[in-house]
Amino acid sequence: MFGRPKSLFTILGFEIKVDMSWLILAALITWSLARGFFPEYYKGLPESAYWWMGVAGAVGLFLSIIFHELAHSLIARRYGVSMKEITLFIFGGVAHMEEEPSSPKAEFMIAVVGPLSSCFLAISSFLLYKFGIINNWPVTITGVLKYLSWLNIILALFNLIPAFPLDGGRILRSALWKWKKDVRWSTNISTQIGSGFGLTLIIMGVIYIVRGDFISGLWWFLIGMFVRAAAQSSYRQVLARSLFRTKKVRDLMVTNPVTVPRSISLEEFVRDYVYKYHFQIYPVLSFGKLTGCIFLKQMASIPREEWSQYTVGAIAMPCNAEITIGSEEDANKALEAMNRTGNSRLLVVKGDELEGIISLKDMLALLSLKMELNDLEKSK
């Protein structure tokens, strides 16, 4: 949401990332726990104790979400679905699936383990809470454990709502998929329910705001917007994968892309290329061979008055694996790479030869045309 997520650490082969919006959630959770929740239920403690409990509660939420998403990822791996990273953001967390589950059973198992993992954490926290009460642990510890128990129960119940992309919506999709043998139809039904649920949350948010509870209303409104947008986006992803599963990168790439010679100055580059084409990345060629890439963000580090002193070749960087792909790769692999890295254009290369460029814009344009003509294959 706020730029590219930052990598925190890797666990069990999964990279844990955090979007900067998570800091907003962490701060709000800490503040609300320290100033409202814990003082209401545990009176008479020093103010510093409430703040430490608030921090512990926020950390507990952080770990609970990671545990929940790790459960999804481990089961996905068991069923052959590639998941390499988990990202935390302001509305929780998401394990990034690079492909759809291969069967209704795989979908069901991947989805159901999320709420089950939250139930496990809820029970574990409650048992620790009871153990702490019996053994006279400080209230600053038992209070946080009791909060985490209730928190994970709420997470489990919320995720069981049958509205895609929540876990309950995925469970519903697996049942419909098993029944109709059509993943696209099943996704359409479950995402419509998810979209409707998101709209309900938006309306609830507006009602709260009108009644004067602005903070609660704003949260419900934003969560509703997120659920609705995620549901609609999920259906488009299924349609895209259905279309592109039979195509190779070479079928969709532009074979005569815009390229930049190494010898021109940065001033010429900006005047003749940047202002004309508005791309973020340009391939750099010398005698017909790909020698590197120049990124628009590189220009920000060079003062305007020095543009005439540098050539493109002087600042061009190697074209790394994140922005390159082979022409014989599946088109879905290109789409997944774009989603994962945030790059909307990939260079199609073979050794030091530039064969073309495949862009998200062109892929989505084809998808839009196919949808208008109702010319998408049925997905099993």
Give a quick rundown of the structure.
The chain has helices at residues 21-41, 47-78, 104-134, 139-159, 167-180, 183-210, 214-244, 249-252, 266-277, 312-315, 331-341, 360-372, and strands at 6-11, 14-18, 83-89, 92-97, 260-261, 281-286, 289-295, 324-325, 345-350, 353-359. With 380 residues, the protein is an alpha/beta fold.
Write the layout of secondary structure elements.
Layout: E1 6-11, E2 14-18, H1 21-41, H2 47-78, E3 83-89, E4 92-97, H3 104-134, H4 139-159, H5 167-180, H6 183-210, H7 214-244, H8 249-252, E5 260-261, H9 266-277, E6 281-286, E7 289-295, H10 312-315, E8 324-325, H11 331-341, E9 345-350, E10 353-359, H12 360-372
Parallel strand pairs: 2-3, 5-6, 8-9
Antiparallel strand pairs: 1-2, 3-4, 6-7, 9-10
Helix pairs in contact: 1-2, 2-3, 2-4, 3-4, 3-5, 5-6, 6-7
Task: Report on the architecture of this protein.
The chain is an alpha/beta fold and 380 residues long. It has two domains: 6-244, no CATH class; 249-372, CBS-domain (Roll), CATH 3.10.580. 58% of the residues lie in helices and 14% in strands. It is built from twelve helices and ten strands. The strands form three sheets. A four-stranded mixed sheet has the order 1-2-3-4. A hairpin with a 2-residue loop joins β3 and β4. The radius of gyration is 25 Å and the shape is globular. 33% of the residues are buried. The model has no long low-confidence stretch (mean pLDDT 85).
Number of strands: 10
Question: What count of domains describes the coordinates?
Answer: 2
- What percent of residues are in strands? 5-15%
Radius of gyration: 25 Å
Q: What average pLDDT do the residues reach?
A: 85
User: Based on helices, strands and strand pairing, what is the structural class?
Assistant: alpha/beta
> How would you spell out the order of helices and strands?
EEHHEEHHHHHHEHEEHEHEEH
Note the overall shape. globular
Low-confidence stretches: none
Helix content: 55-70%
> Can you count the helices?
12
Kindly report how far apart the N and C termini lie: 33 Å
- Largest sheet: number of strands, sense, barrel closure: 4 strands, mixed
Strand order of the largest sheet: 1-2-3-4
